[in-house]
Amino acid sequence: MESSIITLAPSTASQVYDWLHRRVLRGELPPGARLSETEIATEIGISRQPVREAFIRLGSDGLAEIRPQRGTYISKISISAVLSARLIREAVEGDLARLTASLRPPQALGAMQAEIDLQHAADSAGDVNGFIESDDRFHRLLAVAAGHEAVWTDLERLKSQMNRLRHMSMRAFDRARTIAQHQQILDAIRAGDSEAAETAARTHLHQMLTELPQMVAQYPEFFTD
Amino acid sequence: MESSIITLAPSTASQVYDWLHRRVLRGELPPGARLSETEIATEIGISRQPVREAFIRLGSDGLAEIRPQRGTYISKISISAVLSARLIREAVEGDLARLTASLRPPQALGAMQAEIDLQHAADSAGDVNGFIESDDRFHRLLAVAAGHEAVWTDLERLKSQMNRLRHMSMRAFDRARTIAQHQQILDAIRAGDSEAAETAARTHLHQMLTELPQMVAQYPEFFTD
DNA sequence: GGCGCTTTACTTGTATGGAAGTATGGTTTA
DNA sequence: TAAACCATACTTCCATACAAGTAAAGCGCC
Predict the structure, then answer these.
(1) B88 and A60: CB-CB below 8 Å?
(2) Closest CA to A186 of A102, A94, A107, A97
(3) Residue B184 domain-assigned (yes or no)
């Protein structure tokens, strides 16, 4: 709110946290992987304390599990947590789509269309990371368009569990279907059809996890519950 | 999942965190209050390190704000965050009520009625803390009854912002209204009326914040946004 | 009187040493 | 052979010292 002018150098602990957080969400650190304070500390040439504090923050996010005197491990993907995230996002984003269809703010809708165009490009280029990042922005814009940008802050926490999964399962077919569904949502909103917008949003979020059973079967050691 | 048999003594840092967390939610540590690592550490006779780690976890919860080299403060209540929490809970618990009305699991519904009875008792006794705790359990039971207990884990984070507010504003009138609305929700579920159950749940959650403007006017220094 | 520098007393951030607990592999013992 | 014991090498946890930055009070100067 106030100090957006000056940018102070982020602390060592924050940098380590950001680094680990990004690697976990991208699947570079797979579920079950072991982390070591001393190992990471010596690797990047700092003391154990900042690394330890980064672990604590990862633990609060539910992305790491600290077992006292035993070790720290990347959390496995909780199936029930993923399903809960889906249920919550279906309910909330369904409401947001309905709201947006009755408001139809021109600027936000244009930004959403721009993201869909970006998704076409990222899909053709095979840029999975870029695609998922644009996907995130699209859903965030839905909250903005509904006049509840702050809602996205809370949904983002839920997305992290789902994103780990999507980095594993995102294939060409899914990307094409995702883009088509995004367009469906936006078209319904543009038409001012609240009912259709809610249904499209709910359908989209529900089908996002159709591959979950296959992923569990293929990589059982990455999941729990 | 596995080690529920043996209970290991919680670490010093966890105990400090639990203590602070509880005090913040109850309003004993008001928004804007200043925290000091050294002060708390010497007060309870430990070193700064565990206290510091408790601060970090409070920061992840959004309940404290750590300003580097300046100090740590209890977060003010973000109005937009509270409104977001309400929107999310309306959408999600509306769906949960609808689901429960179609399932009608007898055991869970009995437990919900028992909580309502407890709320009557706590109300008569003027036990505000006990009332709010029973209120929490009632809403948690709604998730359990719908077969999605894990959803409550996520909703609990959102509740913390709202609970700080409720500890400030909870008066006799609100408690009576709350109990009546809980009963409405449960009755609609028992009747198997999904539509009425969803409406009752949404109405209840929406009206939970009717006193927000008054609270902001009365204690402006506790709020932000 | 009022502006500006300096000192001083704070704050959190990082490094390091040791304490306590855990797991593993080798050794001893029956 | 097999089971119990023990040494050892880990892990996270806590305490302590110091570093780096902030803020405010005090003092000198104009």
Answers:
(1) no
(2) A97
(3) yes
